[in-house]
Design goal:
It is a single chain. This protein is mostly beta strands. About 0% of the residues lie in helices and about 45% in strands. The protein contains no helices and ten strands. It has a six-stranded antiparallel sheet, with no helix packed on it. The protein is globular, with a radius of gyration of 18 Å.
């Protein structure tokens, strides 16, 4: 009998859509980009201009030419870290409560991190 694959538990990710991140391991180490989408069920994120793959596509109504298309593939969330644009370095985030709302703050410089979408 074939072994069944257990589903990965859905976890809260430390990055959101729209955040600027830097890749800290793997073949794209050192590249920065914006998070285009987050996939919490698989613990992965799609980062702009990182982990590019080539797709061979058939001609269709949407793309009558067909051919080879280059696009981003998901990367594991543990391979990226938040990038603070103020102190120009990778950082962890902390939560600061201002009034009634929670704000994400850079651990290194203390400035607010820009909100993702």
């Amino acid at each position: 009998m074939a072994a069944t694959k257990k589903p990965v538990p859905k976890q809260k990710l430390h990055v959101r859509k729209g955040d600027t991140v830097m890749v800290i391991t793997g073949q794209n180490i050192g590249k920065t980009g914006k998070v285009l989408s987050a996939i919490p069920k698989k613990n992965r994120v799609v980062v702009e201009k990182v982990n590019m793959i080539k797709r061979h596509t058939k001609p269709s109504k949407a793309l009558p030419q067909g051919g080879i298309i280059e696009r981003e593939a998901p990367i594991h969330v543990s391979n990226v870290m938040l990038y603070c644009t103020d102190c120009k370095s990778v950082t962890r985030r902390s939560i600061k409560i201002i009034g009634d709302e929670k704000v994400r703050v850079c651990k290194k410089c203390g400035n607010n991190l820009p909100e993702g979408k």
